[in-house]
Automatic annotation (TrEMBL):
Superkingdom in the source lineage: Bacteria
InterPro entries, per the entry: ADH-like_C, ADH-like_N, ER, GroES-like_sf, NAD(P)-bd_dom_sf, QOR-like, Quin_OxRdtase/zeta-crystal_CS
Name of the protein described by the UniProt record: Quinone oxidoreductase
Annotated TM spans: none
Lineage: Bacteria, Pseudomonadati, Pseudomonadota, Betaproteobacteria, Burkholderiales
Length: 324
């Protein structure tokens, strides 16, 4: 037996419960992993709320680091005692131990500790595919990144700054603006005080940006389109403020032959080669010092209800890690 957070019905943070569960032995293609650190990501909130429906009852959490305790039939490339990290696959990371498809696990290099892995792996994979494969940002490009002080936004700002792009970041407080600048944002916009569309036009001399990365959704999508230069792209990858409004295709033409995509990390790491390549890119950036993560905000796994309340209230910056 082990213990895990379970979701029996969708709702607020209090809908999660800390229960004793029997996970059994790993089946074909599976690993039994003992967690040493678990990443909290905003997709967990979406799952808990039912915005991205799961079959209930279910576990929660899609990112974790730990140690392989048992290897199931047919698994190659992993052994008991291996340190691994994973992102994606069936939710269930909010647990002391779990069964995991080996296809989602990646061995951790020695220079990446478990807490760091759990705080940056999923977010690093997200940044990698968004700026290198979903839409390739190049040196000299100017992009707008919403929620620039969040876990994904802070890593994205560092990576984009490293390749020579100019990042304009939106934030909700002056303190988060300072944090975003420290992580590579050339310009910050406090959306609670400023009209982000007007400021983007001012910063770019009316030209607009080549890409907007939007994980906010309802509150920002229409404004994001207005920030784009002709033939620019809106990359939507989250709905923190609620489902995004419908976009009339004729609007995209009227605003400058714009592009829009709704991207998901699952579609860019679904193939093993893609996952391994993306993971290696993240590890290389960490090793070279181009990606640096602050000490994450840490909660005991059993206190995940408070962690969810805080992340939804915007009380956290950077990454949040749950410790079993």
């Amino acid at each position: 037996m082990t213990r895990a957070i379970r979701l029996n019905e969708t709702g607020g943070p209090e809908s999660m419960s800390w229960e004793e569960v029997d996970i059994g032995k790993p089946g074909s293609g599976e690993l039994r992993v003992r967690h040493t650190a678990v990443g909290l990501n905003y997709i967990d909130v979406y799952h808990r709320q039912g915005a991205y429906p799961l079959q209930l009852p279910t576990g929660l959490g899609v990112e974790g680091a730990g140690v392989v305790e048992e290897v199931g039939p047919g698994v190659k490339g992993f052994a008991v005692g291996d340190r691994v990290v994973y992102a994606g696959g069936p939710p269930g990371a909010y647990s002391i131990e779990r069964l995991l498809p080996a296809a989602r696990a990646v061995k951790l290099p020695e220079y990446v500790n478990d807490q760091l892995a759990a705080s940056v792996f999923f977010k690093g994979l997200t940044v990698e595919y968004l700026i290198r494969r979903c839409h390739e940002v190049k040196q000299g490009d100017v992009v707008l990144w919403h929620a620039a002080a969040g876990g994904v936004g802070s890593l994205a700002s560092q990576w984009l700054s490293h390749i020579g792009a100019t990042v304009i970041g939106t934030v909700g407080t002056d303190e988060k603006a300072e944090y975003a600048r420290e992580n590579g944002c050339a310009h910050t916009i406090n959306y609670r005080k400023e009209d982000f569309v007007a400021r983007v036009k001012e910063i770019t001399g009316g030209a607009g940006v080549s890409a907007v990365y939007d994980s906010v959704g309802k509150d920002t999508v229409n404004g994001s389109l207005d920030c784009l230069r002709p033939r620019g792209i809106l990359v939507s990858f989250g709905i923190a403020s609620g489902p995004a409004p419908l976009i009339d295709l004729s609007t995209l033409g009227a605003k400058g032959s714009l592009f829009v995509t709704r991207a998901s990390v699952a579609h860019y790491t679904g193939q093993r080669e893609e996952l391994e390549g993306a993971a290696q890119a993240v590890f290389d950036m960490l090793k070279a010092g181009h990606l640096k993560a602050d000490v994450p905000t840490v909660y005991p796994l059993a206190n995940v209800v408070q962690a969810h309340r805080d992340i939804q209230a915007g009380k956290t910056s950077g990454s949040v890690v749950l410790m079993p």
